[in-house]
Model the fold of this input.
Amino acid sequence: MAHGEVLEFEEYVRTRQDALLRSARRLVPDPVDAQDLLQTALVRTYGRWEGIADKRLADAYLRRVMINTRTEWWRARKLEEVPTEQLPDASVEDSTEQHADRALLMDIMKVLAPKQRSVVVLRHWEQMSTEETAAALGMSAGTVKSTLHRALARLRQELESRDREELVADALGREERERCAA
Done:
């Protein structure tokens, strides 16, 4: 790669790294994995930087590389993973409601298949149009719409399920306190 291309890539990474890390963070739930995902995608993109004729499309190219990499990782995961019926509670470092909502949403996003998560991230967080999402993921606009519909329905179902579990736990806790007080 020519020296000018290297400098151009370095400048691109310097100016876009925060936004790219946010995109990676939305694709994988763990912050350290998100950093690894972005780093891997940057390494892969660096080798092909000269081939990106229109550098204005570099973000879309890099997001596609991140999605493909995340999918590779998901497929290569150990088969020893055992799914559980109840996900662990999300840790919330900040007590503000916004951080709690974000942590809950990121936790609930874990129930989605990688394809569904990609569609949700690109449509809602990256605010891409249906057509842009379809192009980025290599699928038809109709597939994007149906995948998004199923993903949002699954997220609603998971959220309602968690709300019911909280109500039951609260009721049991009240009964226990009343019994102790009596």
In short: The helical segments are 3-27, 31-46, 58-76, 97-109, 114-125, 130-137, 141-181. Residues 97 and 152 are 22 Å apart (CA to CA). Residues 141-181 form the longest helix (41 residues).
